[in-house]
Amino acid sequence: MKCPGYCCSYPNIHVKPKDIKRLAKHFDLSKEEAHKRFTKKGYKEEGQKKAPRVLRHQKEEHFGSICRFFDTDERRCTVYEARPEICRDFPGRKRCGYYEFLKFEREAQEDPDFIAVTNNND
User: Fold this and answer.
1) Matching Pfam families, A to Z (predicted)?
2) From the DSSP assignment, how many helices (H) and strands (E) are in the chain?
3) Cα(28)–Cα(74) distance, rounded to whole angstroms?
4) Could you give the residue ranges of the DSSP H alpha helices within the chain?
5) How much is the average pLDDT of 9-38?
6) Is 5 exposed, middle or buried (0-12, 13-18, 19+ CB in 10 A)?
7) Segment 77-97, tens digit of pLDDT
8) CA end-to-end span of the chain, whole Å?
9) Is the peptide bond before 4 cis (omega within 30 degrees of 0)?
10) Do the beta carbons of residue 102 and residue 118 sit within 8 Å?
């Protein structure tokens, strides 16, 4: 089953300086250039002193927008080896809860391509 990329659609995918450094090395860029090309200022969440740096997004049909590094045709991360720490740690357990939900819904809907989304722009 291809990954729908639900976690990649989160608006604030935080990146730390070491994540930017890893992406810079992956693309053979300076840290400054990677910072400029791949990140932007996110929105300040409750309890944060300042707004974090987050990965830029691209338009996507199911979620409205998704991480710029997510291949929307192949449904996979294009920088998997260089992905940020937050992506490496997600979901904090062996299986993704959305994946389990999606598997259940596809069986219930009798549709192997069904993707449950909350973004309805129609």
Assistant:
1) CxxCxxCC
2) 4, 6
3) 24
4) 17-27, 31-38, 85-89, 97-109
5) 95
6) buried
7) 999 999 999 888 876 656 666
8) 26
9) no
10) no
